[in-house]
Amino acid sequence: MPPYHYGCMTISRRFIRFCAVGALNTTVDVGAYAVLQHLGLTVIIANLVSTSLGFGTSYALNSRYTFRHRRSLRQFVYFAAITGAGLWILQPVLIYMATVLGVRSAVAAKLCAVAGTLVWNYAWYSRKVFVKPAVPSASSQASGIPWKH
């Protein structure tokens, strides 16, 4: 399917699906967190459970719907490392940077971090996690070297 064109900007359908999945898994995360807090769980336990639910939702939907890719252990390990780095390393750094640059609201700083993490995740998912295996060329097959592309 062709991408969407908005003036001089082109947005791929895959990126739109990625944003829709992101909105859904963020809703799962925040909704579960609110319910667990209402039930009396501690902030740390509620956040651990809710981010885990959001993480699982994100992996399931991004692998099947956004990138339409078969799941594998290698893919899950990359996904977990990239998502974990985005959630627990990149977001705190971006929140700190936003506050240093004058963002006064904690929610606004968090939204800046979410936007940065969205770019981080899409870039890595589309280039490292959900990539199709390379098809060996006829010349590499003829040479008897299966890993040469």
Briefly say what this structure is:
The chain has 149 residues and is mainly alpha-helical. It contains five helices and two strands.
Q: What spatial form do the alpha-carbon principal axes imply? A: globular
Task: Report mean pLDDT, rounded to a whole number.
Answer: 84
Estimate the helix proportion, in percent.
Answer: over 70%
- The secondary-structure class comes to mainly alpha
Number of domains: 2
Query: How do the helices and strands follow one another from N- to C-terminus?
Result: EEHHHHH
Rg calc: 19 Å
Kindly describe this structure.
- This protein is mainly alpha-helical.
- It folds into 2 domains: 1-68, no CATH class; 71-132.
- It contains 5 helices and 2 strands; from the N terminus they run ββααααα.
- It has helices at 13-38, 43-66, 73-100, 106-129, 138-143; strands at 4-6, 9-11.
- It has a two-stranded antiparallel sheet.
- A hairpin with a 2-residue loop joins β1 and β2.
- The protein starts with a strand and ends in a 6-residue tail after the last helix.
Features:
2 strands; disordered C terminus; single chain; 149 residues; 2 domains
Protein topology:
Layout: E1 4-6, E2 9-11, H1 13-38, H2 43-66, H3 73-100, H4 106-129, H5 138-143
Antiparallel strand pairs: 1-2
Helix pairs in contact: 1-2, 3-4
